[in-house]
Amino acid sequence: MATDARRLSFLLAVHRAGGVLAAADLLHVTPSAVSQQIQRLEREEGVTVLDRGPRGVTLTPAGRVLAEAAERIEGELVSARKELAALGDDVAGTVTVASFSTVTVAVLVPALVALKEDHPGVEVVLTDMEYADGVRALRAGEVDVVLHERDEHTRPNAGRGHRDVPVLDEPWRLAVPTSMPTPGSLHELAGARWVGPDPSTAAARALGRLGAEIGAELSVRHSFYDFGVALALVAAGEGVALLPALALGSGIPDGVEVVTMPGLGTRRIVARHRQSRHEPGPAVAAFLEAVGEVAAGIDLG
């Protein structure tokens, strides 16, 4: 009996989602429908595909073999759809993008406007997602492009089967409380108090680099992920913050002075996509081109 590809898709959903309930949400069906498809798959193949335990389900060795086959089938179908779209006169398809707020507002939204004019058949779906989650989604085929950030001195780590496309290099800026003297060099900041960026961010890596260049252990308090929170803390006199230029585009609150100086470096925005014989497809390529054109026109002052 031939393996039912639809049943394999249910197994793949359980594997990616981590359980039957989560897979049901992902597929927009009931949990019982997922369980029935898995049971039928096991009967048809004569193997057990899931280990069912008190902490959830995991794939058996046979289940992993079938899940890998499902991924290959899914990949071939995606490639076929993209090739069919490329045969037409116009580029068409859906591009799912994981990004974060500063880049979405300054780059991606204007790129969507341009795409509607140049390639009306391309539909872009944006989702806010942290970098690690975005990379996992890219590997799983759940998104087509991941926008991420890194300090200029951080080595790229795209990995096999992925490619990083530089989008924008933007300078780091200092946000300084107006209650303190304006610093003229990095070494004047040796005794300053800093508002600390979340450790997972490019700003944290850049701040660590500055501390090494200054040659002093920086005094850090608080922790921010949102740049608006950082500016509010600086305005309250809580410390100095290192922020990328795009974070300052929405206005500077009272009590904050923006300072530029040599040695701060830059934040690089990168678009990561899958790279293979079939990818990126025409729709993803059109999206990346639009993003690059918008980024090239941004005035970072």
UniProtKB/TrEMBL annotation:
Cellular component, GO annotation: protein-DNA complex
Keywords: DNA-binding, Transcription, Transcription regulation
InterPro entries for the chain: LysR_HTH_N (IPR000847), LysR_subst-bd (IPR005119), WH-like_DNA-bd_sf (IPR036388), WH_DNA-bd_sf (IPR036390)
GO molecular function, one term: DNA-binding transcription factor activity
SUPFAM superfamilies: Periplasmic binding protein-like II, Winged helix' DNA-binding domain
Superkingdom per UniProt: Bacteria
Residue ranges constituting the HTH lysR-type domain according to the UniProt record: 3-60
Coiled coil: none
Family membership noted in the UniProt record: Belongs to the LysR transcriptional regulatory family.
Name of the protein in question: LysR family transcriptional regulator
One Pfam family recorded for the sequence: HTH_1
